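# nightly structure sweep
# worker-07 picked up a monomer target from the shared queue
# config: single-sequence mode, recycle default, output format = C-alpha cells
# input follows
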Amino acid sequence: MQSYELISLDIWDTILRRDCHPDAIKVETATVLLEQHGDLLKEEYRSARALFRLRQTVERDLGQQSTAQGFDDEYEIHAVFREVLVRAFLEPHPEEELSALTERLVAEELAAEKRHIYLDPGIEAKIDSIPHERLVCISDFYAGEAFLRELIEAAGFSKPLERVLVSCDFRVNKRSGRLFEEAEKLLGVTPAEHMHLGDNAYSDVEVPKRLGIAAERYLPAEEHKRREERERNFVGDAKKPLQYPGAPLSGSDDVSLFFYGFVRNLAEEARARDIKKIYFFTREGEFYKEIYDAMAAVSKRSYPKSYLLEVSRLATFMPSLREISTKELMRLWNQYSVQSIQALFTSLGVDLESVREFLQKHEIPAEEVITYPWQDERVQVLFADQAFLECMEAERDEKRALLLSYCAERDLCGAEEEVAIVDIGWRGTIQDNLCHLFPKTKMLGFYIGLIPFLNEQPENAEKRGYIDAFRSARALMTVSTPFEMICNSPNGSTVGYSAKDGKIVALRNCEQEEDAIFFSYTKALQKHIIETCAALCIYCENQLVTEFELRPLAWESLKRFIYEPKRETVNAYFALRHNEEFGVGSYVDRSTRFRPVLMALALVSKKKRQEFKDFLRDTTWPQGYLTKYRLYPLIGMYNRILEQYY
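# output follows
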C-alpha cells in the first residue's frame, strides 16, 4: 500500500459522530438562551426553534458578507452568537454584557456537543491501515481549532494530531478547495504526498481529487444508517411542543405535564445558578423529589444533588425564634390572629403540661379562643414573666440543637453557599424559619405558587412561584388543597426530632384516614405522574422541547385538574382529613353534605345566593363539590366568577 507524508481527516461523521441531528445542537443552545433570558427577548423569538431559525439567518448573512470580501461563505461561532443577541434582544445591551453572554453560549454549545458526541468505532483502525508520517484534521465548521480539539479529546481519540485546520479560522473551506490549498502551504506538503479521508462525496472526495490529492470516502454502513435515522426524526421548524415523534402525551388533559414543567424549571434554574444542592421539604417535597430523581436518572444533563429534608412549620418555627416575645410570635399571629393558647403551644411543639402552671398563674384558660392574642393583657403579662421566658428558651434551645444536628447530617450546616429548596407553597414560611437559623446560607425557594407574604422576608431568602406569572394564578391558589392531596405522602407530618443510635431522626405524625386516601387513590396517580415525567424528560431532550414552550400547556393541565375535576379525585378529596396542627392545632375534616334546600332558595333570594356562595367556598373545593353532586352546569359559571373576582 502506498505511504503518504500526510493524512488529513474530516471530523464530523469521520472521527466524531453525534447521537442527534447536527442542527439539534443549535436548538439546544437556543434553549439555554431562552430559559435564562427569555423575558428579555422579542416576542417573535421566544421559542427555541424561532431562535434557531434566527441563527440560520445570521449564519447566511455573515457567510454572504465573507464572500463579498473575497473569502468563502464562512462564519465563526462568536460572531454568530453576538449578532443573534443583537437581533433578538428587546433592548440594546452594553458590549461587555454581549461579550460575556456570547462566551457563555459558546461554552454551552461546547457542553451540548460533548453530551451528544461519540468516537467513530472504526476510524482509528482505518488510520492504522494507511502508512503515513503525519496526521491532521481538515474540517468545514463554524467553531475553531481549540473548540474541536476539546471535543476530539473528550470523545477519546488517541491518535496525535499535528493540527486541526478549520474553515472558520481561515475563512475558506473544503468545498471550494481553498482550505486544502491553505493546509498544504502551511504544512509544507504537495498533493502527491497527501491523502484525505471523509464522509462527504463532494467536499471530501471529489474536490481533493480534483486538486491531485488522494481521497477516500469513509462511510461505514452501520454508522451511516444510524445517522440517517437520527437525522430523519429531527424537526427543525416550530410546531406545537407535544406533536413531535414519540410524545408521551397528546394534550393538556394530564396533570403530569404540570409536574414535569415545575420540576424541569427548578432543575434548569438551579443549574444556571450553579447550585449544587437541592432540598425537598416534606411532605409534598417527597413526591417532587421522586419526580426529580426519575428525571435525573434518564436525562443527558447532570442534575444537582437532591436531598430530602423532613421539616414542617411545626418542627422549624420554635427552633427559629430569635427571641421569646410577642413581637417575634407575630410571624405566627400575622396568619392566625384568632387563636387559643392551647393551639399556640401546639404550633410551637410545646407540651401544654410544661407551661400549665404559668397559664394558671396568669388566669389564661388554655381552650379560650383569643382574638389578637398579642393585644391581650394576660398574654402580655405571661410573656413578661421571666420564669416563663426561661422555660420557653430552654424548650427552644433543645429543639434548635436537634434541628441543627439533623440538618448537618444532610449537609446543611449554615455555610456561606447558595442552596435550593423545594416546597408546595404558599408563603414559604418553612424557608423563612430555616433562613433565620442559617443566616449565612442563601436559599432559593421553588414553589408551585406564592401568595402575598405576611412577614418581613429574611435577607438570605429568595422565592419563585412557578404559576405566579399567569393571569388567573391567584384565583387558582384559592383552591389549593386538592392539589396538596395529590402531592401527599403516607409518611406523616414532621413534628420534631430526637436522637436515636447516634443519629438525629425526624418524628412523624401519621393520620390513618389521611393515609387510607393515599393508598386508595393518590399512590397510583403519583406512580403514573412519575413515570410520565420521566418519559417527558426523554422526549423533550430528544426533540429539544423546552420547558418554556411547554409552560402554557403545563398551566392548562393544572387548571383542568382543579376547575374540571374527575369524580374519582373528588370522592377521594372529600373523604380526607387534612393536617392543620400548626396554627389551628388539629386535623380538618373535608367531608361535605348536600344542601338542596339552600340551592333552591338561592334561585329566588339574593341573600341565599350569597349564603350558597359562602357555603361553596367553605367546602374548600367548590368545583369538586359541584362535581360530587353532579351539578355540572354550575361549574363553568363558578369558574368564570372566580377568575373575574381575582
